[in-house]
Write a structure and sequence with these properties.
It is built from 3 helices and 4 strands, in the order H-E-H-E-E-E-H. The chain is an alpha+beta fold. It has one domain. The chain has a 4-stranded mixed sheet. A hairpin with a 2-residue loop joins strand 2 and strand 3.
Amino acid sequence: MKPTLEKFAPSFIHKVLRQYPWYMFMIIDFRYTFKTYSDNILDFYGIWNYECPICHSHHRWERHGTYSRFLILPADGLFREELMDILRLRCTSCGHTHAILPADVIPYCIYSIGWSKTVLIFSTFSFLKSLQL
Ligand SMILES: [Zn+2]
């Protein structure tokens, strides 16, 4: 019988936590982007509907502050750097904290998905153009 990822995921998470006690799991909310993050996540004071990646409990969150990070986004053929606030939530069940990221932010990376996509397209066109010479 082939092993499934679900069977090994909890042990993998605990192995990572033992190796990197500073490691903070992030939750990516794919419903929102950099533009809609502030209105829908930062300014939201209702009940959060996320599942804790550590203990898998729902609705047991409390706000645990914010931190600032830079993000590079594509803008009119150029790039712009934005400073954005990221919300951290603490699971009241297990005590771990988690940052909530929008869909276009890559964890631990200053470059956004849009920037990566733009660079990939530009590189592909440049490569194809070089083949025609
Ligand atoms: Zn938890």
